[in-house]
Amino acid sequence: MRIVLDAMGSDLCPVPEVQAAVQAGQQFGDEIILVGPADRLTPMLAEAGGANVKVRLVDAQDTITMEDKGLKLALKAKRKGSKTSMAVGMDLMLNGEADAFVTAGNTGGALATAYYRLGVIPGVERPALTGLFPVKGGYCVVLDIGANPECKPEHILQFAVMGAVYAQRVRGVANPRVGLLSNGEEAGKGNELVKGSFPLLEDSGLNFIGNVEGKELFGGEADVVVTDGFTGNILLKSSEAVAKLITDVLRQELTASTRTKIGALLAKPAFANIKKMLDPGEVGAAPLLGINGLVFVGHGRSDARALVSAIRTARQAIEADLLGALRGAIQERLEQIHIPTDKVEEI
Fold first, then answer.
1. Last residue of a domain, which of 280, 308, 326?
2. How large is the C-alpha radius of gyration of the chain?
3. What is the mean pLDDT of residues 75-97?
4. Which residues contact 53 (CB under 8 A, 6 or more apart)?
């Protein structure tokens, strides 16, 4: 496998990326293609032990930063000769020189660059950023978590198809239960988007279980939950904040006295398991489903461990032929509901 790692993505780049490239090369034995300013990366890679693993440097002197917005961002993402680490890395995929791309950089920049340089799977109108939420009994695939603030019911249907394929191929769920995020379980609940999406999902042939609220999502009653990117992003950030609050309060209470410290010591294995479940670094990155290529976006605060996890997630997608499965599933679903694949909305 050949996996591109954007060296200029994380908040502390390129230190975590260089460390992750070496560690992933040692752990997986695959070729890791580190894209960024070669003059800066070469001595860092040598110091980190890169000579002993299959890490290849590809020079890219520009980068997309968190400050890049609007036209400036679009030009960096779209123009043919762009030398940003994202553009150079995705061009390697486009030219058949790599199998997947991983970044911890600007999410909007990754989405725009992927859309302009790789395009979308025929029949997909909106790529969706896809997250794994820790829930009772495992994880739930949630999409969209931020790529598309405004959606139509047809987009929600496509998200559901792609999420079900991801849950099946990468997560190993045989017949994923698909839920529609709403403010009530009844079919008539929700805003116009939810009400319009419900009948499409009901007739989709998916294992659609209806509307789900937050309690069903975190209760593990669905394997895939679909929503628009605005709602999904609020759900994601609120969940992260609540998880941090609970762990902070627990830590404070368990160290408040000698008695609680003893109890905490006895319960240490259980707390370690909970910490692992809530740690986003365990998964490392979220896939941009719908892009005609395997693109994964991690958190800006990613350290080397999180980036190695992101590379592991990318490897799983390659092994499962996720892209091929998505192409086939989208084509099949669209044929079933009689929507020609050439009727694709321009983003």
1. 280
2. 21
3. 94
4. 21, 22, 25, 26, 32
